[in-house]
Amino acid sequence: MLEAYLLDIGQQPLDSDAGDLPAIPADAIAHEVPGENSALDQIDEILTRTDDALNREQEAVRDAADELGVTSERPDSSGARVVPGSVVPHPRAPAQDPNPELFRTTLNNSHRPDGDAGGLASSSDEIVALLRERLALAEKDRHKTAVSLQQSLLPQELEQPDDLRIAATYQPGASDAGVGGDWYDVITLGASRTAFVIGDVMGRGVRAAAVMGQLRTAVRAYARLDLPPHEVLQLLDGLAAEIAASQIATCVYAVHDPNEGKLLYASAGHLPILVRDKDGTIRRAEDLTGPPLGTGGWLHTSGSIALPPGSTAVLYTDGLVERRGKDIDEGVAVLERALAGAQGTPADVCATLLGALDVDAYLDDDIAVMALQHPTRTGADAELFGKATLELVGGTETAPRARAFTRDTLTSWRLPVETCDLGMLAASELVSNALQHGTPPMELRLRRTHRRLIIEVADGGDYLPRRRQAGPADEAGRGISVVAAIASSWGSRRSLGGGKAVWCELPLGF
Q1: How far apart are CA 174 and CA 182, in angstroms?
Q2: CA 19/CA 157 separation, integer angstroms
Q3: 3-class SS letters over 424-481
Q4: Cβ 362 vs Cβ 323: under 8 Å
Q5: What is the DSSP letter of 293?
Q6: What are phi and psi of 290, to 5 degrees?
Q7: pLDDT at 352 > cutoff 60
Q8: Mean pLDDT of the chain
Q9: Looking at the whole model, is its pTM more than 0.85?
Q10: Looking at residues 135-152, what average pLDDT do you find?
């Protein structure tokens, strides 16, 4: 009936399937018709569901009135007469209006072209349906924009370390949940060490997403300092207190060190990392959990959990395991059982966990999940990975022994002669630096992957070397400069238990 009326007054109904918002005839707006109260109550309920959709409705109504040549005006405070066919103001409005009013649509029984008073009364169901459709389209558009914003703040492509396989997934909440503050990231630190972070800014909306974006950027910057995990979270805690004092954020930051075969981690009020061993045993990294970010005085320390070959670690946000009316520990227990039986690639593991927790039925919150696998390597693949260590006891024979050890190891790995020569030079300079500026115990570590050779020297001193500009007459001070010149990258870091490590990488070109 409404479609026929639109054609009657020369208005073409819009195609909602094409994405347009269906037009509402301006003649159907203004005067309440007896018997239509139930329909109006439905319209009222729909229009109050979201402020964004309400604003869209108001603009659409005004545009329709203008197209039909109908006056759209508000009555003044003196109670001036409302022009038939106008939009009737009611005292319930968007917060941004200094004089709150809500434009409530009602049915007009006095302005149909054929003069049939009350002739539109029977079309109320159609108007309710149109309003529902318009609101659904507006909400769909709003949710799509929110999801695009959220995903633009997440990494578009994960960095893939040599020693691990990684996959992550983000799933937004339901269309009425709004944009959230979940995030994750993977950060390459050098020397085959990799940082992983996952966090959740509590609350919803653009504010939560903006805070999340700032925290994620800050974590990447702090990670470049190659600090222990708890020191990274201490810095992040201070930043969170400055930029989002009213927002609570949780976060877990972990670093995989292939030399130790462990995940070093620190947690700021976040859910525990889960690790599944090769035999299906599940372990939790839940020691030393501190308070959420932004609470101030974050003074906790780092913990560690083994990540041997064949194991899988999972980091996740609370949207995966939290359900209304249930203890969150129940959700974590379900997740542990699902992880124990999960098989396949990291992407397969993520999909299995999402399915086991039935997230499609409980999309009250957004969800982030990251899976890390330490694969068991055999055959030709295993030959592309290797490591060797030499304890440095000091004395005049230490440097020659280190060079000979490096030469023999790299030759056994069948590396090119040029790479062997550069590796020996780099090892010699790093060992000499440790002998001159470091303290016992000292150790030379050699590692190779399918893409790079890593040379690292650890000692008990806290002094971090820096590259200096040696003068023409200086007899020392060029070692780090030599390493920087021949290596693709180099760096240093303090060790969690004290001491430091200085490293460099040479590309293998395989």
Answers
A1: 14
A2: 31
A3: HHHHHHHHHHHHHHCCCCEEEEEEECCCEEEEEEEECCCCCCCCCCCCCCCCCCCHHH
A4: yes
A5: B
A6: -100, -175
A7: yes
A8: 78
A9: no
A10: 73
Identical fold at 154-374 and 379-507? no
**Single-letter amino acid code for the residue at 50:** T
CATH class, range 379-507: alpha beta
CB atoms near residue 374 (< 10 Å): 22
309 within 8 A of 374, measured Cβ to Cβ: yes
Neighbours of 185 (CB within 10 A): 21
500, β-bridge pairs: 459, 494
> Which amino acid appears at position 495 of this protein?
S
* Of the candidates 230, 202, 61, 30, the residue with the CA atom closest to the CA atom of residue 131: 61
* CB atoms inside a 10 Å sphere around CB 119: 16
Q: What is the largest CA-CA distance in the chain?
A: 111
Confidence class for position 41, pLDDT limits 50, 70, 90: low
Nearby residues of 49 by Cβ (< 8 Å), 6 or more positions away = 135, 139, 176
Residue 246 φ then ψ, to 5°: -95, 0
Judge residue 292's burial from the number of C-beta atoms within 10 Å of its C-beta, 0-12 exposed, 13-18 middle, 19 or more buried.
buried
For the chain, counts of helices (H) and of strands (E): 12, 18
- pLDDT-derived band at 360 (thresholds 50, 70, 90) equals low
**Looking at beta carbons, which pairs linking 72-76 to residues 24 or more positions away fall under 8 Å?**
72/26, 74/101
Nearest to 236 by CA among 293, 187, 288, 300: 293
Contacts of 191 (CB under 8 A, 6+ apart): 447, 454, 456, 491, 501, 503, 505
**Rounded (to 5) percent helix, strand, coil in the chain:** 35, 20, 40
Query: In the CATH scheme, what is the code of domain 154-374?
Result: 3.60.40.10
Residue 292: both structure tokens together: 């959420």
**Domain boundaries of the chain, sorted by first residue:** 2-145, 154-374, 379-507
Q: Alpha-carbon distance 141 to 52, whole Å?
A: 10
Question: Cα-flanking dihedrals φ and ψ of residue 403, to 5°?
Answer: -65, -45
In single-letter form, the type of residue at position 501 comes to: A
pLDDT beyond 70 at 72: no
**pLDDT value at residue 157:** 85
